[in-house]
Amino acid sequence: MKTYEVTINREGKWWMVSIPEIDGITQARTVREAHDVAKDYIAITLDVPVDSFDVQIDGA
Asked: What InterPro entries does the annotation carry (predicted)?
């Protein structure tokens, strides 16, 4: 199963979620939410099922 590296960094009230492999960036309100936001972003961008890959979050 493919795993995407995701980096999160705090910016004000938000966590910026960066997905370099697909040149993507989005945001989450909490660290816990960052995982789901990253998975949704990747699935929508690549038009693949959300359960067809994993994400590994670095940061926080």
From this structure: TTHA1013/TTHA0281-like (IPR035069)
